[in-house]
């Protein structure tokens, strides 16, 4: 029974992260559109950063904690990237086979492979120095600037679909009241993200210690899935509406932001040292990322069979995390 309150706080933290990201993205998008910023640019900047905000807040909170839960900070990003590819893409493809734009296959996917490889090379020794964080964060700044320049020459880019419908509907409203309302959404969203991240990390660490579960496992599973809720909601909604062409691009972009922005900024603020990094976890992240190459290169589509393979792979990985002895791993 002593776990029940902490589970309740964990659920509340997850809910606040999900709603907070939605509220912040809506308000910031409305303000940007009102300032005559193109919807395409809003999709590539405000929305992209907004959907990665839960991972950023959780990882920053964990690394800056006086007792430093760096394992949760890293596990959150590694687990979230695995979740985005294996769980979310798997679910989306099962709902409806995905069409992937040629730009994603030619540009975003190779960039993700290079960025993932660089991140693994940096973190494999169990730490990220501040200079490495600065390098990664500069990478995301360069990527965003390049994406905006490229998007201006291709106005049909699918990032347009990222902007919330509510933001587009209210962007044309003028006057002080609508502006204050949009600001209110931003403030409310940020408050939800900050408090939700605090509750999620604190309760997650407590539950891990009570159940003798490594904090890294909590970060790789419960926290990772929780911070991926905005992407999950967007993925399911887009798949049901038949907007399957934007899903793979969104999730690959989210993985880029998770590594370059979340890990970059987190380690740039304070060097990140992991106590129990398991090389198998980063190998799994690399493996799922590499698996996208043969899946997406063949016809620029992800069918239900391939989605099922990704989903089964993710469920197997989760079982391995909780019950490694079932796979002959001891100690």
From TrEMBL:
Please give the InterPro entries that the UniProt record associates with this protein.
K/Na/Ca-exchanger, NaCa_Exmemb, NCX_ion-bd_dom_sf
**Domain Sodium/calcium exchanger membrane region: start-end pairs:** 7-148, 182-322
Predominant location of this chain?
membrane
Recorded superkingdom: Bacteria
Supply the alphabetized keyword list: Membrane, Transmembrane, Transmembrane helix
Q: What are the subcellular locations of this protein?
A: Membrane
Q: Which organism is it from?
A: Haloferula helveola
Cross-referenced PANTHER family? INNER MEMBRANE PROTEIN YRBG (PTHR10846:SF8), SODIUM/POTASSIUM/CALCIUM EXCHANGER (PTHR10846)
Q: For this UniProt entry, which segments traverse the membrane?
A: 6-25, 37-60, 72-95, 107-124, 130-148, 180-197, 251-273, 279-297, 304-322
Question: What is the official name of this protein in its record?
Answer: Sodium:calcium antiporter
**Which Pfam families does its entry note?**
Na_Ca_ex
Give the record's membrane topology.
Multi-pass membrane protein
């Amino acid at each position: 029974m002593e776990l029940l309150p902490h589970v309740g706080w964990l659920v509340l933290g997850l809910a606040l992260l999900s709603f907070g990201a939605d509220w912040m993205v809506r308000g910031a998008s409305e303000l940007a559109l009102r300032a005559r910023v193109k919807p395409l640019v809003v999709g590539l900047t405000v929305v992209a950063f907004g959907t990665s905000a839960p991972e950023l807040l959780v990882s920053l909170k964990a690394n800056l904690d006086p007792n430093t839960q760096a394992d949760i900070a890293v596990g959150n990003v590694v687990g979230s990237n695995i979740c985005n590819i294996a769980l979310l893409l798997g679910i989306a493809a099962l709902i409806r086979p995905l069409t992937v734009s040629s730009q994603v296959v030619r540009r975003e996917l190779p960039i993700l492979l290079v960025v993932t490889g660089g991140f693994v090379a940096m973190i494999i020794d169990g730490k990220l120095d501040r200079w490495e964080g600065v390098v990664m964060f500069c990478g995301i700044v360069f990527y965003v600037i390049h994406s905006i320049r490229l998007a201006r020459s291709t106005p049909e880019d699918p990032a347009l679909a990222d902007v919330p419908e509510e933001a587009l509907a209210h962007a044309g409203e003028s006057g002080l009241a609508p502006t204050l309302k949009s600001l209110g959404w931003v403030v409310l969203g940020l408050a939800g993200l900050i408090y939700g991240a605090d509750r999620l990390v604190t309760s997650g660490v407590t539950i891990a210690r009570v159940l003798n579960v490594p904090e890294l496992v909590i970060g790789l599973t419960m926290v990772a899935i929780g911070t991926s809720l905005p992407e999950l909601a967007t993925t399911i909604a887009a798949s049901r509406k038949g907007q399957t062409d934007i899903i793979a691009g969104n999730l690959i972009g989210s993985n880029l932001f998770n590594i370059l922005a979340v890990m970059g900024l987190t380690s740039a603020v304070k060097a990140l040292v992991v106590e129990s990094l398991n090389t198998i976890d980063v190998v799994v992240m690399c493996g799922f990322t590499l698996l996208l190459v043969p899946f997406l290169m063949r016809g620029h589509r992800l069918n239900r069979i391939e989605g099922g393979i990704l989903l089964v792979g993710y469920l197997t990985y989760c079982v391995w995390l909780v019950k490694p002895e079932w796979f002959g791993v001891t100690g």
